[in-house]
Amino acid sequence: MPAARARRILVALSLGLLAGSVVAQEKPEASGQKFYYDDPTKESVFVGGARLVYGDLLLTADEIRYNSTTSLTTASGHFVLTSGGRRLVADDGTYNLATKTLHVRNLRLGQFPLYLTGEAADGSLDELVFTNATVFFREHASYTPSLHAGKLTYQRGRIVSGEDVRIGLLGGHFIHLPKLEQRLDVPFLNHVVARLGYRGSLGAFGEAGLQVPVSRDFKLGADAGLYSNRGFMIGPSGTYERSDNDNAVSGYFRSGYINDYGDRKTDILGRPVPKTRDYFSWLHRQRIGAHFTLNGEFNYWSDSEILRDFRPHEFFPVQQPDSFLEAAYNGDNYVLSAFARLHPNHYQLVTERLPEVRFDLLPTPVPGGAYQRLNASLAVLEDNGIGGPFKQHSTRLDAYYGLSRPIAPVEWFTFTPVAGGRVTYYADATGGRDHYTRTIGEVGFDAVLRTSGTSDYKSELWDIDGLRHLFTPKLSYRFAPEAGSGRRYIPPLESRVFSSYLPPLSIADSRNLDDLHRLDTLRIELDNTLQTRDPLYGSRDLGSLNFSADYRFPRLPGERHLSDIHTELALRPAPWLRLEVYHRFTPRDSAQQELNAGFELIDLDWWSLRLSTHFLRHDYEEYLLDYRQRLNEVYDVYGRWRYDARLSRFNEQTYGLRQRLGQTWAIRYELAFTEGARRESSFGFNVEVELLRF
């Protein structure tokens, strides 16, 4: 037997006999190149590559001294303590096997995503108190934001407290926080971004945003921007988030104020944009218990163009801001809700709800195999027009009750007759009446035929293991001859809005409650789905092709009996290929009315390409190409081209380079050229620095 192995066995046996204060089931095992017993200190000493193993704990050092009476282990030189996924490195320190407490100097601790250094630490692996600590998130590098604390308490999974906390880079920590509490599974800093660039409308500009924690669940900061042609914009911002069992709340707010001395032009109504401009946006999401939710948004813009001028990335996805608050209680088979919509922006036409209280009974079985549904609401509506005095008010009480009875003579066919009635009371009627009650009845049916066919076709390239074609013809009919009655007495606050899709068929689902018409309509739908076997989910959709159209027996002026034919195509044969098409044409003259299509190729590791089209007859015809190419671990290039076929011009050309700096920063360099936009500049350049996660 080798001498070194024999020495380790003897040492383990001696420690097992001496460790009377340690639990008998777990005995420390130690080894080293040299071993001796220090009788004055009653310590077993291991020198040179010393190791001590105790359960899942491993301690290594140049020298380890173990006292069997006190269970105290003293280690010096390259002190490394490992337990599970936690690892602590220091110059020297002590660890008590019985109490599991430690004291170390000049330590480094890592538990992803946190890396921590300090002059000293006391406590246990589950809770440590650091002196003069520096904390890095995700990676230990000079370019990574970090925080420094005179005293910091760390518990597994979170920093519970900090004193004299400052944030910055290694070159200096210049942002002071009075206190600190931070979970490691959420970002420490939010909304950290900086931009430098040039746009013709703004001139040279610099923008920055930062939020820092002021409590465990709330981060507060500001957005600021300096524009050589417009002035200085600044406003507070914040983020909050908290979850506890069935309760959760999250949200954010953003704002900005500027005294704009540049060329402000006119707003969406053709009026001059004021010099003093500001905005405030707030979003709130909350769940209380298992049944109650509270969601809301508030968007105030001093003029219709402020976000378009200064925050285009926020403006273009949502160009008409909404402001609402909804509280909902979800019962076992019903929903009770209150919904309020406000009108803070004078340039928008919005029907306010002040509020609307609703009760919705979900389809519920009743004796005889039928199903009932009930919707009832009380709404106070106001339409203040645009920039003018009070225009119109309506207090409305509305209820719908319906019955349906599915009949399935065979498993592949279902016929469901439906009947229902809707009663609406208007307390503020028009046409010389103080109030008005409208009563509407409807009857109809839904018929569904389900067919399928299978094939044993297989393809390794497309990961196809057999094919199944589902063909589902549907036929629906609704008849409500009195739906358009009493129109001259009804305040028209909720009227029809433009939509290129088929409207809801039943009066129960119509949202244009104040603008109904006689209903006598047959709807035809042909749905096709192609599937293959999937080992995880049982089946996987490869694609779908659906057709739908309405036949109107009575028709409104300007309408034809047969509506446009609507076609929807979606192909997803593989994760790297997607095709989506929506097409609408008029069968009488085969005129194409609308075509929206998107074709996407994706290589998740290296590149992606998306080609899309947007065509609406008499309005626009545009083609959009987005391309991204990964060059290596650090750099990506991307481009976007929007071409207007009607005007034969590129409305937008964007060329960009994205650089990733470690796991912390992303830098984007972007050139943009535009044509034809009323407010946007024809040329823009910007450099954006974004903190990915800290």
Describe it.
It is a single chain. This protein is mainly beta. Among the domains are: 90 residues, no CATH class; 85 residues. The strands form 2 sheets. The protein has a 26-stranded antiparallel β-barrel. Strands 1, 2, 3, 4, 5, 6, 7, 8, 9, 10, 11, 12 and 13 form a 13-stranded antiparallel sheet that branches. The N terminus is likely disordered.
Largest sheet composition: 26 strands, antiparallel, barrel
Q: Low-confidence parts lasting 5 or more residues at pLDDT below 50?
A: 1-25
Total count of strands:
41
Q: Which value, in Å, is the CA radius of gyration?
A: 35 Å
Helix content: under 10%
Structural class: mainly beta
How many DSSP H or I helices? 3
Strand content: over 45%
Integer average pLDDT? 88
Overall outline: globular
